[in-house]
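Shape is hard to put into words, and the shape of a protein is harder than most. The fold becomes a row of whole numbers, each drawn from a learned catalogue of backbone shapes. The outcome of that step, for a single protein, is printed below.
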Amino acid sequence: MLEALQLEFMRNAVLAGLLVSIVCGVIGTLVVVNRLVFLAGGIAHSAYGGIGLALFFGLPYLVGTFGFALLAALAMAAVMLKAKHRADTVIGVLWAVGMALGIILVDLTPGYNVDLMSYLFGSILAVPTSDLWHMLVMAGAVLFVVSYYYNDFLAMSYDEEFAQLRNVPVKLLYGLLFGMIALAVVMIIRLVGLILVIALLTIPPYIAEKYARSLRMMMILGTLLSCFFTLMGLWLSYTLNLTSGATIIMVAAGGFFISLLLERLIPKRLSPRAETVPR
């Protein structure tokens, strides 16, 4: 792996993986504890409409994809707040519409010659230096927002109704959270692709939840696990000549099943108390 780091594209891949891991650890934790995995999946797949828009109108990838994913996320946030019992239906519709719109726009794009596999399964080895700066700004924005509203996110994650009684701006927090999920999705697509986004966003925080005693510790552990899975997946893909995105997810899946096995083997009395992390 050390000799591979002499190559610029490999260095870019490692840096991109570390930046995305930070976002996965932080945003993934909020997704898991607030039980928003299905919603995050809806945002991820509807983002394909943004990819189609970017290709059809010749827009930069980040502008088209993030813009469309953000609109979808805000629409889902509005439904979650006003008609929560209908949220799964609306999410499913936006999921399907985004995918269908993206496919149609790709078909209509004149002279289209972009490899769709890179969007579906990721292209971490093709991340340019310019994208690294964009990822750095995105990761910094996520860390700033979550740090600034950490206590409010903690209250909302623990008990939404109690948070509202304490004048916590729950609607604003949901809007910010959904917007950051859209931002995270756009970043992760570059690494593991549209189809595998949810795995990287949720597996590390899910494992971290078993051993963390606080929301902050869960974020830190989730980030470290995500870094490990990404770097190990990159090393295996380089060594065995495998697709990087899929290899990263398989490493994360291996960690997931190992955590389930350890949970069965290790007595619960030795594990941190589950109620210490908001659910």
Remarks:
- Confidence is low (pLDDT under 50) at residues 269-276.
- The CA atoms of residues 26 and 226 lie 10 Å apart.
